[in-house]
Design brief:
This protein has 206 residues and is mainly alpha-helical. The chain has nine helices and no strands. Helix 6 runs antiparallel to helix 7 and helix 6 crosses helix 8 (155-179). The protein is globular and about 45 Å long.
Length: 206
Amino acid sequence: MTAWEIVVILAFTSAGATVHASVGLGIGLVAGPALIVVDSGFLPGPVILATLVLTARHLIVDGRHADRGTAARAYIGVPFGLAVGLAVVAVADESTMRIVIGGAIVRAAALLLLGVHLTRSTRTDMLGGGAFSLSLIAAGIPGPAAAVAFNDLPAGTYRGTMGFLGIPVSIISVALLAVAGEFGSHELELTAWMMPGILAGLFAGR
């Protein structure tokens, strides 16, 4: 890593982690565009691990507020989202993945800026779980999909629910990526470069 790359990694991961620790999403959306300029390998795997660290914070702090019924319904859609997302990662080359990730970032930003919301139901919870897991494993940016699907949850309940949903899905996603040959020693090294910024963001956003 060059000096400027290290600065970019630390600055954007700490900013993204601060937002994520505060509101329950943001690490991929805020840091992702800068990270893929430094190294396209940052997404999805290393950002998923970073999300896992941040989501653990939500479970510890806000887990008691979680809506476990919502999380349980969302789990129904998870296998389908993971299967589709892993298929995308498996067949896409590096340039295609840049397009997929870039498109995911643009769509996510648009959804949040437009304030798109869904009327909650069992079906939307299942679809939300599928969209969350697909966006996570394919692009490392699950937050906006979850924010749209679970928009009516109070802040603490949302973060706690994402803890129950996000930790298992993140672990499974990294395992699947590793089995598919999409997560290895290089991605672990990139994850390590992110950790100082992630920890700084956790402290700033607590």
